[in-house]
Amino acid sequence: MLELENVLYRKAYFNRNYTYLPLFDLHPTLSRLSQCFNLILYTRLERTAAETLLKEQGLEKLFSQTRFQNDCIKHPADGFIKDLAYVSDIDMLRTIQVDTKDASVQLNRQNSIVLLPDEHLGELVDYLEGIVMDGCPDVRKELEHNQYTEDCFD
Fold first, then answer.
1. Cβ-proximal residues to 89 (8 Å cutoff; 6+ apart), any chain
2. Is the pLDDT of residue 153 over 50?
3. What's the predicted TM-score (pTM) here?
4. What would the CATH number be for the domain defined by 9-144?
5. For the residues of 65-101, what is the DSSP string, one character each?
6. Per-domain residue ranges for the chain?
7. pLDDT computed for residue 86 by the predictor
8. Which residues pair with 105 in a beta bridge?
9. Quick one: which of 80, 112, 145, 146 could link to 72 by a disulfide (CB 3.0–4.6 Å)?
């Protein structure tokens, strides 16, 4: 489960407008991950903006499901909170949510990796593939103590 903003794209101000720039070569990385995972997009962005970004990069077919801002819980202090209950047909034993905001994943921390500002999804590929190769029966156990999550929720 992936967030668009700051996991796949960085928001930038250019020519007096905001635009989104890819953080890395998206298509090969997401194609590689889609071989091991059922990729789901769950983003704080509005539907129109998210779908436009996906279509521009030809990524829309790599995601089996998409959830947008209207599928988040609006919280006055924490912004948009994602609730995995809104995503159909997922097994929580095998679901990993990747985001950049601790507040966004607060309802499902045991299934989450929160990236630091200088990290991006491309750096996690080997780690995520390793979980699959090891045949991990419950990803939450793997995520409890690893280099990507141990300091996220202190």
1. none
2. no
3. 0.84
4. 3.40.50.1000
5. EEE-GGGSEEETTTEEE--GGGSSS--GGG--EEES-
6. 9-144
7. 84
8. none
9. 80
